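Re-running the complex after MR caught last week's input typo. The corrected sequence lines follow. Everything else is unchanged.
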Amino acid sequence: MHTFKYLPANTVKDACDLLAQYGEEAKILGGGQSLMTLMKEGFVSPAYIIDIKCLSDLDYIRYDINDGLRIGALSTHRSVETSDVVKENFAMLAEMEHTLASVAVRNWGTVGGSLAHADPASDLAATLLALGAEVTLTRSAGDRVLSLDDFLIDYFETALQPDELLTEIRLPISSQGKGFYYKFAQRATDLAVVSVAVNLMPDPDKPKQCRDIRIAMGSVGPKALRSRRAEDLIKGQSITDALIEEAARASAEDAQPTTDINGSEEYKRELVHVLVTRSIKEAAGRAWTP
Amino acid sequence: METLDLTINGESVETRIEPGTTLQQLLHDTLGMTGTKEGCGAGLCGCCTVMVDGMAVKSCIVLALQVRGKSVQTIEGLAREEVLDPVQQAFIENGAIQCGYCSAGMIMSSKALLQENSLPSESQVRHALSGNLCRCTGYHKIVKSVLKVGEK
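Corrected-run output:
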C-alpha cells in the first residue's frame, strides 16, 4: 500500500478539525471494508488517513416512538443486523444486512462508511432509500441534514463536502411499514446484480389500502434509484395484481441498468420487473396477513 | 513507522509497522505467524480470517493500527499445548482438509459461529461460512465437521 500519514481521531470534533485542515488530501477510515481494497489496489492513495474506527460516540442505535430510529455512522452492519430494536421496527433493514457481504465484513464495516462510499450496488443505500432515510453531515461549524435521495449523487459520489463527516442516519416514524428486500445475486456474498427494496406503509383505517409506498432499486443506475412512477401508481390505492403488474413495468422502465458481465440491460430490466412484482406481493402479505 | 500494542493469542505484543500494514501482513509477514494467509487480498476468500475481540474479521482488509489495544486470536492460538481445539479435531476426523489453504480461515469462522450459536443448523453453518471459499472439498465435509462439533 502507498505511504500515508496516519491520523487517529477519537472525537467528532477532532475528526472535523482534521478534515478542515487536510480536506481533499485526506480520507476518512471507518471499518475500511470498502476503502482498504481500493487502497491496496492503488485506486486511491490519500496522503492522510483519518481513522475514526474508535469514535465510540457514533456507535449507537436508538429508537424513539415519536422520533424514529437513529443509527450512529460507526454502527457496524452486524450491530444493525442483530439489533432487536431494528428487527422490531424496521425489519427490512435487519433482513437486508443478513445478505450483505459476509459475517466477517459485517463485523468490521460501518453503515456510515458504506453510505459515504456510495457503490451503486449498495444493498444499504437501496434499503435506506425505501425507508425514507435522512443523513446528518457534520463539519466544525455545525450539522446539516439531507434526505438520502439528495445525499446520493452519482457513482461513488455523494453530497459530502471535503470538510464533512457523515455522523448519523435517521429513519422517521412515518416510514414505518412492511418492507421486503430482494437481492438477486449469483452467489452468497456477491454484490447484487439487481436489488429491490419495497416499503409499504398501509392505511391504518382502510384495509388492503396503501397509504404510501417507496420502491427502491439497486445496481441499476449510477446510484440507488426510486421508481417514482411506480410509487405514484400504488400510493393511496388498493393493491391488486393488475396494479402490481403496472407498477413493476413502470419500475423496469425507470431503472437505468447498463449491460455488463452480469447481464444485458434488457435482462436487468426484466429482473427489476420480476423482483418488484415479488417484493410488493411479499410486503403486502406482511402488511395484511391476519 | 507507528507503534502498535495489542494482544495476540493471550500474549502482549508491541511492534512498529508502516501505517499501511494490514492485520494479515502484521501477523504473517511481520510476526511470522503463517497460519493467517492471503488468498485474494480483497476480503472475499476468507483465508485471512482471524478473531478480534471474539469477532471474525477479514484481516487482509483490516488496517493493523485499528486493532491497537484489542485481543486477536489466530489459528496458532487454538490448540492448548498438544490438545487440539474441538473444531480442529472435527476437521481432521471428518476429512475436511485437502490442500489446507482455506482451513485456518474456515476453522476461525467456524469457531466464531459456535461461540455465538453452539448448535447451528446446516443453513446457519453455510451462511456463517459463506465468506470462506474452498477450491478443493466442495464444502460438504467442512459443514459436516462444524455440525458434528455442535452435536458433541
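None of the earlier attempt is carried over here. The interface with chain A takes residues 2, 18-22, 41-44, 46, 49, 52, 55-58, 61-63, 65-66, 109, 112-113, 126-128, 130-132 of chain B (CB under 8 Å). The CA atoms of residues 9 and 81 of chain B lie 13 Å apart.
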